[in-house]
Amino acid sequence: MTTVDSVSKPSRLAEPDEGISEEELRLAGRNHSMPLEALHYDVTPAGMHYLLTHYDIPAIVPDSHTLIFDGLVERPMTVSLDDLKARPRRTHHVTLECAGNGRALLQPRPVSQPWLSEAVGSAEWTGTPLAPILREVGIGSDARDIVFTGADHGVEKGVEQDYQRGLPLAEALRDDVLLAYEMNGQPLLPQHGAPLRLVVPGWYGMAHVKWLTRVTVIDKEFDGYQNAIAYRVRQDADDPGVPLTRIQPRALVRPPGFPDFMSRTRVLRAGTTTVDGRAWSGHGPITSVEVTLDGGETWSPAELQEQGQPYAWRGWRWSWDAQPGRYVLGARAADATGRVQPVDASWNRGGFANNSVQRIQVAVVTD
Ligand SMILES: Nc1nc2c(c(=O)[nH]1)N[C@H]1C(S)=C(S)[C@@H](COP(=O)(O)O)O[C@H]1N2
Ligand SMILES: [Mo]
Fold first, then answer.
1. Which ligand is closest in space to the CA of residue 208?
2. pLDDT 10s digits, 19-39
3. What is the CATH number of the domain that holds 330?
4. 298, 291 Cβ separation under 8 angstroms
5. Residue of the nearest CA to atom 16 in ligand 1?
6. Mean pLDDT on 262-273
7. Which of 19, 209, 213, 245 is the most exposed place for a label (fewest CB within 10 A)?
């Protein structure tokens, strides 16, 4: 690993009253979240899907793009995009969420990409399954992790690197893990990984390596930056931490009524209205969604729509006889493993997996 100390900045927490910095605003402009009104769509239109890119979006010529399989394999192989497109074609509807979603709402605020609770999207990813190719190249018996390398390059906390993530072999061999070249029936957009990305249904965003160039089999746990340092839940800077893997349950409410421009407080006319939204978990199917009007003091069960594909979000709705007044609207999801979304998730140093219940300010008014 090359280190570039002259540009390195240690990770830090914002001071108690410190506002958003220019650095955070620049990241927020580059990496946009999903407008909450897009919860209307079961399949998020590509331009409304959230976006997270650590370095630059690389300029890649799709026609000459190749993918290399190397490391502990019997038959190293280089395949073209056309070779991959000629292989069996699968489409999976998968909800992607950034592991840092909710970070900017934590106190103290970890200074990094300042997500509120909207770093999510749910797309139809088309590609070819990875596992049959891994079997063709012949994985060594002592294989442990598969390392996925992207074409993008940068420096992070002084470490110069290609974006790389290791995935345990058993996950890489799941039959729903895709080498994806289409999103919502169109070739991948540059910002979403064109011409080729990995899709690991159920895992937080960082595992879905974009601009994929290389798949390397190794005999130990991958110790690169994004696995060993970046994406870990830790209490303080010295804590080795726990790696982030699958998505914790979360429900989001599609904000009802219409917004105030600056505060985004919702204005709603009194009367019966349907509140709706979507809920997801990478651990198991969503089994319940409940709605609160008082910031998590009391709850009412919502009606679940049918579950689509296993790692796609699930729609829900709730009928509200809205009386004039002020409300703090939110929803909480539970999944089949018994995981329940907390009103206030616990704090961690990197600001990861903050699935605290949303707090939408609503003013119900009469005509
Ligand atoms: N090569 C590469 N892959 C990457 C990233 C990146 O910076 N470089 N960001 C990851 C993170 S942190 C997330 S949340 C998802 C975001 O995918 P999207 O931008 O298509 O929504 O891509 C992942 N794959
Ligand atoms: Mo992310």
1. 1
2. 999 999 999 999 999 999 999
3. 2.60.40.650
4. no
5. 52
6. 97
7. 19
